């Protein structure tokens, strides 16, 4: 069913009796050309682009729970391409360009809102770093503006500009950045993939890999064995556990990343704002709630819940930046299980097991990368060769030392 204004009006007259399911909940077949493990944004985008861009339609997406029940529905919805390094900026700029046409591409409202992303700086050293990053963005065709204090004040007059410890001296603004509705992205890709013949199989947990003479020839699942010529894994914080079933150890650590939403308020936050003197970022949803988050919890975990010390730390950052947030009531908090790589950058590559491929290590940046990640992973699965934009996201870089350390923090995943 194609969505349109005419269809909405027609169904309103008919009492909404003609709507069909958004995607087909398939029963797994015995064999596929490609199996994608993980029914989140990256897995669903991969399946969609496999069929749409590369003509591979005998594909199954296997999800152990319900569609979109993982990180894709547990993030803070931010999309941007304000990166510094040559290995990252072109990739995320490509992703942002795909975001800009995604709703039309999928015929599904992903609620992409390019309201702008503003990174604040509070010292001369931070300003110089943002000048370098902004110039790198411009050189790669992205947009970037360096604002002074008055420029920031015009956009967000409610910030605590005169804070003695953290005065707001300016910010780096990317106007094309913004937010998208996270679960709508998953549903849109699922609908698009299903329309192209992809089987989306829920409640189908992978319990092992079928290996024959060193090659992966399928998977074992709670719904029986399934054969495949190629298997791709896109399971975020569960990457290490899943790859362990194939005898592999990954340079990843799993951590909890919490997010929060307040009661609905009148429009007050114009876009996405990040605090440069602490780890705090905030935007406002279409329902009026302030959506915000901060640092990961200080220990490794596979849980999807956090602890109170991080809640306190995030709220302190919010209060230092915008004291008015202290009057808002927090309605909900939740956690996502993120896979932190040793250099803070992702992995899109084949594994040492022939026929088995990995998409992981997205750290904080998984949601914004969804379209480009799906496209590049689909390219790898279909052709066996890395996409040029993801050529540096190789698993072997951790052996050779060819790291992509965007933050310059070294091999400490909890700092990325």
Summarize this, please?
This protein is of the alpha/beta class and 416 residues long. 28% of the residues lie in helices and 26% in strands.
What does this structure look like?
The mean pLDDT is 95. The protein has helices spanning 5-13, 41-54, 89-100, 102-106, 124-139, 149-155, 182-195, 239-244, 308-321, 370-383, 397-400; strands at residues 31-37, 59-62, 78-79, 117-121, 145-148, 170-174, 178-179, 199-201, 206-212, 215-221, 226-233, 252-264, 272-275, 280-284, 289-300, 330-341, 347-350, 356-360. The chain is of the alpha/beta class and 416 residues long. β13 and β14 (280-284) form a beta hairpin. It starts with a helix and ends in a 16-residue tail after the last helix. Helix content is 28%, strand content 26%. The protein is globular. The longest helix has 16 residues, at 124-139.
Characteristic terms for this protein:
416 residues; alpha/beta; eight-stranded mixed beta sheet; 18 strands; 28% helix; globular
N→C terminal distance: 43 Å
User: How helix-rich are the residues, as a percent range?
Assistant: 25-40%
Q: Let me know the number of strands.
A: 18
Q: How many helical stretches?
A: 11
Tertiary shape:
globular
Overall pLDDT, averaged? 95
Structural class of the helix and strand makeup?
A: alpha/beta
> How would you characterize the largest beta sheet?
8 strands, mixed
Could you tell me the strand content as a percent range? 25-35%
In terms of quaternary structure, the protein is: single chain
Low-confidence stretches: none
> Any idea what the radius of gyration is?
21 Å
